[in-house]
């Protein structure tokens, strides 16, 4: 399986800090930009927003909230509306990643476990829980389809540039999976990449691949050199082509790269959104 070591590396230890508005709970786990390029938007209130993604045409902001389910904020802002909080009679206990097909408007999202909530996320890894689900929401009909069940800690999800498949982070096993939604393999999943750490959100880069935030490396020790992998960039062939390094105090949950070369870092622990740019 592809995915060994990164070909190149860059240091992101010196980042610009975009502080959250006063009174906001720390931890902007996900960031998003609207159709006009405005942003970054982030969320740290509600239940616990873990994934944000705009429909660039309609202006709707879709939110994967760990405790409330799949939600939508209408163009212009306001209170979020719960769209999905149970599927096939089973509640969404740990809604996590989200992405939007900008052509069809369909929304893809994950529920990391049917047994544990986000507050018990360590148990999902510790027990090897494999009750996660990958789903699709159709905003035209409000129908929800389970694309795959029995998954091990599905987390972030990203639609491929050609819209033929989804790339899903499997946090506990430190892997990426590819789930086909078009072509002769539609409805099947396969290994896509082995990772050097525990992945969180997955977002497209600007070259047809993906940025994968790493909460921490495998077998990481708290002492020693104050540097670890913050994220890796994976090509469309599943090979790691670049890594981002920084302080162990920073544990990113999302990496969002913009066409201007700026890279935005979300985190569950820090009171700001980080911004770095390759030198």
Automatic annotation (TrEMBL):
Chain ranges of the Strictosidine synthase conserved region domain: 96-183
UniProt region (Disordered), positions on chain: 1-44
Location of this chain's protein in the cell: Vacuole
SUPFAM superfamilies for the chain: Calcium-dependent phosphotriesterase
Entry keyword Glycoprotein: yes
A single GO cellular-component term on record: vacuole
Name of one Pfam family that matches: Str_synth
Keywords, ordered alphabetically: Glycoprotein, Vacuole
GO molecular function: hydrolase activity
Top-level taxon of the source organism: Eukaryota
Gene3D superfamilies recorded: TolB, C-terminal domain
Family stated for the protein in its record: Belongs to the strictosidine synthase family.
Protein name: Strictosidine synthase conserved region domain-containing protein
Organism annotation: Triticum turgidum subsp. durum
